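tokens incoming
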């Protein structure tokens, strides 16, 4: 920057992680130096707050590992660089050839909640209106499809009724199947503040005792799969207590009596409800009484409800209780689905699911005809397509010959991930648009790789969990030959002969058409309506602030206003009445057995996201939980001979992984919890999708990712350690490893059943080749640092116990530099200094021991004092639940 030049204005954009949709302010001086990312105080989703992941986005924008040029598979099988014209022609000709030979249902698209709405819209238009198949689905099927199906059954539309502001006016917040403190931390801070400032109650319903429970007034640790039982019991209780809104039921709903009969069959009494859910009767009674006597109740639910073979029934059991009490459409009340991905909602708006058309329309003859006329589409899809799991089963059977995957990694994330990988290898044409050059899906046999623009490089919109549309804006130039996804799809459509319908010049062009379709022949009969934005100018699109739909043509563009639906008691069914739904009697799809006696529950950790393609680049995020693990109750750990910090083999009928053991009495006996984030690119044996059964909900098609029968056994890996290198490092086969981001290069945490001499020889033959060596020895470990031309090049530390995992000694050796003689140097070291414990606060690198020491020494007694003393919890706030737990334990220990 020239001296005296004014720095550029911060770019307002939207976070690319979860469905909260936080507004950000980004400042970039030089792209190579990263970016400064802070919360946007004007954005109504977060008002300036961000979580640990959002706070470290500036560390994730390097071009390491980026796909920067089109690649095609050569005759010899290698991926070789080519031109855009050649790559696009290959895709267009390949799809056209297969469609002509085998019909439109022989091809499919698999999309992602990471795409922008404009990208999603163009892909759906091409497949459903011009190719003529509805075989286009999305990874959002894995996280929120049951909510969609439940909304449509109850409301006649996929409508989220309320707004985030309801979290601050509710007097009772019920969290079902949601570790909100970790998965939606900005919203959780709003809930916690409401509890602290207004005295609102928080009830958590979850088989696990998670960080979210630290703020709860009541925790119901229900048995897996019993959500429908609990809420059926609640409906019966509300009826018996005369706590129903009969005037609302009579005027605005249908089907109540049938739903109540079914509820009484499932959970006839409070005692029966408690017994079947596996929780104390007094706790169920307290929850039921809170719900019955509190007017402003909001029920937030997430993957613990949705990711089930009966997820849709669970959603409707929750909605039934809100309809029965008339608690919907008014401030501080209603059901609220907490969406997983940044644009899962936007994908729903444009028909990103195989059972929807664009603009929240379905596959009725009238809707097919309406969308076809608007698009002037030559061959509209006439029926629903294959949902995600069905789609990949069709690939496995050879029925789908060509697949285009955009911005997702199904060979890692889908159930039976190993079988999915094998199925992808059978495809005649596998096209992948992504911004990474390698992942599990790319390695499954891609024929064409198309470099897509990443977050920070493209323009468009996303919609968060409260129906709020926000802009993502570019603040970086397009690297290499990367292009936006909407442009890539449009170019293929033109080459397939549909140029007139895909003559978009910008994302704004796409958005205008999307908005116009939402208003086309609507007349207030469909919930989704952006008519007020259908004529938006390029300038106004560039400047568009957050807006919440519906926005019909006569609506004012109130940038930060809240819009609730159903406050007038009118829904989007044919008679404008909501529907009570009688759920099926709940039962897990697959019984446990002597071979697989436990239940496998999957989920997320606080500081990572999906397959870590982005979050895994941040050294700060790697400090919280660095290795893939299985959480197991102490009773089950004893039965299997497991120890905390050891290793275990977790297996199901579909696959197995080897994971670090975390023993926790917060885990329900009989259940195992494993995080989903590690792939074959980041760990040796932690691809959790491989373990999950492919059972799906009959209404939503969403897989049951929370209850696969499983078993666990000890895995003997007595040596622990790590290796760091400035270059990628390949470890010997059979080594357990996990890749970690560091500022110094590549780090692998590792474990092994081989002896120290083996690792000495390995280090000398790899890192030590043509290098100067300093070896550090003691009775139980081997550690060595390697220098090339006087510069640090790599190191290895391995041994028994936790000492070999600590960096302190090698750091001192590296700082001292290489040996002056040029010959290997072996030194004896003193005992290691005390470790700081696991990192609790990623923002400031504060460890558990520092927090305990401060409390035990009397220097701090609460989170505010810890924040002032150590900084922990004073930035993004994601660590506050853990800090509170640590402080409470430390105070109890000090008082003992």
């Amino acid at each position: 920057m020239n001296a005296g030049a004014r720095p550029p204005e911060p770019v307002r954009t939207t976070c690319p992680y979860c469905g909260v949709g936080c507004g950000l302010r980004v400042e970039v001086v030089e792209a190579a130096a990263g970016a400064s990312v802070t919360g946007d105080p004007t954005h109504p989703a977060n008002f300036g707050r961000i979580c640990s992941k959002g706070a470290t986005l500036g560390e994730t924008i390097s071009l390491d590992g980026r796909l920067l040029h089109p690649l095609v598979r050569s005759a010899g099988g290698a991926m070789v660089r080519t031109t855009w014209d050649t790559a696009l022609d290959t895709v267009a000709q390949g799809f056209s050839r297969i469609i002509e030979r085998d019909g439109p249902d022989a091809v499919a698209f698999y999309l992602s909640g990471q795409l922008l709405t404009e990208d999603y819209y163009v892909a759906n238009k091409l497949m459903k209106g011009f190719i003529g198949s509805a075989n286009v689905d999305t990874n959002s099927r894995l996280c929120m499809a049951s909510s969609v199906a439940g909304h449509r059954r109850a409301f006649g539309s996929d409508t989220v009724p309320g707004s985030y502001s309801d979290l601050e006016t509710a007097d009772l917040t019920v969290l079902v199947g949601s570790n909100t403190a970790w998965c939606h931390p900005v919203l959780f801070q709003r809930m916690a503040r409401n509890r602290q400032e207004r005295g609102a109650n928080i009830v958590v319903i979850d088989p696990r005792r998670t960080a979210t429970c630290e703020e709860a007034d009541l925790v119901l640790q229900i048995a897996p799969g019993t959500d429908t039982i609990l809420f059926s019991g609640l409906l019966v209780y509300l009826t018996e207590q005369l706590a129903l809104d009969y005037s609302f039921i009579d005027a605005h709903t249908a089907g109540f009596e049938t739903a109540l009969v079914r509820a009484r069959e499932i959970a006839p009494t409070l005692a029966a409800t408690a017994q079947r859910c596996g929780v104390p009767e007094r706790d169920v009674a307290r929850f039921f009484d809170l719900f019955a006597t509190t007017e402003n109740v909001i029920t937030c639910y997430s993957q613990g409800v949705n990711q089930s073979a009966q997820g849709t029934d669970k959603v409707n059991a929750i909605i039934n209780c809100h309809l029965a009490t008339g608690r919907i459409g008014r401030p501080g009340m209603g059901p609220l689905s907490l969406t997983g991905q940044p644009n899962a909602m936007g994908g729903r708006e444009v028909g990103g699911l195989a059972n929807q058309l664009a603009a929240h329309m379905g596959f009725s003859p009238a809707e097919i005809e309406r969308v076809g006329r608007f698009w002037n589409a030559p061959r509209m899809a006439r029926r629903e397509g294959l949902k995600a799991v069905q789609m990949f089963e069709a690939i496995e059977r050879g029925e789908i010959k060509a697949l285009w995957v955009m911005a997702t990694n199904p060979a890692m994330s889908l159930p039976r991930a190993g079988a999915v990988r094998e199925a992808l290898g059978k495809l005649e044409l596998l096209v992948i648009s992504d911004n990474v050059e390698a992942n599990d899906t790319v390695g499954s046999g891609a024929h064409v790789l198309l470099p897509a623009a990443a977050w920070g490089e493209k323009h468009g919109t996303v919609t968060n969990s409260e129906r709020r549309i926000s802009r993502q804006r570019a603040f970086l130039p397009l690297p290499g030959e990367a292009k936006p996804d909407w442009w890539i799809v449009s170019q293929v459509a033109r080459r397939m002969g549909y140029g007139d319908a895909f003559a978009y010049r910008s994302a704004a062009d796409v958005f205008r058409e999307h908005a116009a379709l939402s208003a086309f022949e609507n007349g207030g009969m469909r919930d989704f309506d952006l008519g007020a934005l259908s004529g938006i100018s390029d300038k106004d699109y560039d400047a568009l602030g957050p807006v919440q739909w519906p926005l019909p043509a006569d609506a004012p563009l109130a940038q930060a206003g809240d819009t609730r639906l159903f406050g007038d008691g009118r829904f989007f069914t044919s008679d404008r009445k909501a529907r009570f739904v009688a759920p099926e009697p709940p039962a897990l799809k697959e019984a446990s057995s002597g071979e697989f006696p436990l239940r496998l529950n999957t989920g997320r950790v606080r500081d990572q996201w999906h397959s870590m393609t982005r979050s895994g680049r941040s050294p700060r995020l790697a400090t919280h939980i660095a290795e893939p693990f299985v959480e197991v109750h102490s009773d089950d750990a004893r039965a299997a001979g497991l120890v905390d910090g050891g290793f275990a083999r977790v297996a199901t009928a579909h696959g197995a992984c080897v994971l670090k053991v975390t023993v926790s009495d917060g885990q329900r006996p009989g259940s195992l919890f494993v995080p989903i984030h590690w792939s074959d690119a980041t760990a040796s044996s932690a691809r959790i999708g491989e373990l999950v059964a492919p059972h799906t909900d009959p209404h939503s098609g969403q897989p049951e990712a929370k209850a696969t029968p499983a078993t666990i056994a000890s895995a003997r890996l007595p040596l622990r350690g790590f290796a760091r290198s400035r270059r990628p490092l390949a470890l010997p086969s059979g080594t357990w490893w996990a890749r970690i981001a560091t500022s110094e290069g590549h780090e692998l945490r590792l474990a092994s059943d081989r002896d120290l001499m083996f690792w000495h020889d390995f280090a000398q033959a790899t890192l030590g080749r043509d290098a100067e060596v300093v070896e550090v020895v003691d009775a139980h470990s081997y550690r060595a640092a390697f220098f090339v031309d006087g510069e640090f090049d790599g190191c290895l530390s391995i041994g028994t116990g936790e000492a070999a995992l600590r960096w302190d000694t090698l750091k001192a050796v590296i700082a001292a530099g290489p040996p002056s003689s040029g010959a290997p140097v072996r030194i004896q070291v003193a005992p290691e200094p005390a470790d700081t414990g696991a990192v609790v606060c990623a923002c400031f690198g504060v460890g558990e021991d520092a927090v305990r020491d401060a409390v035990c020494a009397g220097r701090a007694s609460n989170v505010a004092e810890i924040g002032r003393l150590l900084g922990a919890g004073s930035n993004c706030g994601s660590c506050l639940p853990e800090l509170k737990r640590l402080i409470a334990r430390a105070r109890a220990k000090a008082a003992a």
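note: Residues 16 and 455 are 7 Å apart (CA to CA).
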